[in-house]
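Morning run. Coffee first, then this:
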Amino acid sequence: VRLVESGGGLVQPGGSLKLSCAASGFRFSWYDMSWYRRAPGKERELVATIGSAGGPPTYVDSVKGRFTISRDNVKDTVYLQMNSLRPEDTAVYYCKPNFGHYWGQGTQVTVSP
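And here it is:
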């Protein structure tokens, strides 16, 4: 299993970023996929999940209405569109399938003036 996150960066409050996670080594379309984040000094937090067939996603309350998770089962890629970013969104973001303990290297998102 390989997970490669990308798309992070430095953005001002109110800005947007779109994260991507390219997956390989497993049947991507069979599994729910999630985005997690770990902010400095905090536990890793589940941010969003999308079903294997792209069914209704779920979000942590703090990102509802601002973040959108999506997937492309042809490209074996899951995305996280992040709008109206806030400083408290600063974290390393990771994607994960809903099996095993597989993690990528993550991508850093920093929201700062």
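The longest strand covers residues 17-24. Good start to the day.
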